[in-house]
Amino acid sequence: MRRKVPLYESIADSVRREILSRRLVPHTRLPSEPDLVRRYGAARETVRRALARLEQEGLIYRRQAVGRFVAEPRVDQDLDQLFGFTEFMNRRGLKPGSRLLEAGVVRISDPESVVLRQLRLPRGARVIYIRRLRTGSGEPLVIASTWLPEERFPRFLEHDLRRHSVYQIMDRMGHKPTSAEQAIEAVSLTPEQAILLGVAPGAAALLVRRTAYAAGIPVEYAEDYYRGERTSFRVRLGVLEGRLGRAAPRS
Prior knowledge:
Layout: H1 7-20, H2 33-40, H3 44-56, E1 60-63, E2 67-70, E3 75-78, H4 85-91, E4 96-107, H5 114-119, E5 126-136, E6 139-149, H6 166-172, E7 179-188, H7 191-197, E8 204-214, E9 217-227, E10 231-234, H8 237-247
Parallel strand pairs: 3-10
Antiparallel strand pairs: 1-2, 4-5, 5-6, 6-9, 7-8, 8-9
Helix pairs in contact: 1-3
């Protein structure tokens, strides 16, 4: 016997199909609650439950006293694959872009520096620091801060960072990352970060800290701030289970 689908789920599914088929494009205003009540012959509370489900899924967003709108699709990123931002955008069908905010060589003397620790460098080591605003098809998505050991990348900043990605340059210099460790943390954006990303101060973001390795040697430490409402990360559990299975002791 087939389970009867609740009406609010049917309404949510109908609107969802319109969004995913692109009949409703991002930032299109949805019909008002009274209009949806008339369209589906449902109670107002039922319509609100359907809209709440779509908000939870990130498919729509609400503006106070204005209405509900179709959200921009999230940019999904796999955690079990190591891609540079440029390659990642290309794979998602978006045009990668970059605005250089800062670039230089700095000497770090703080013995507690996370950069020195992650790159396994001694106190006083010189590192290349690059800060960029990364965009997808013109939309700001990520504030990327990158540190590289200068001794492994001499004259790195002589390359054109506006035309070539950091990973492309690292590859040319013989140290392209082949593995990495990443940690993800939910944070709130500072006013300066919010302005760069075009969102409200205090908006949610995902901070990704990454240490990348080439032949087992740390060659990059990065801290990337992703817009929370535009980004989602996923991991393939089968890969994780395989690793755990190989690591499990025999009984």
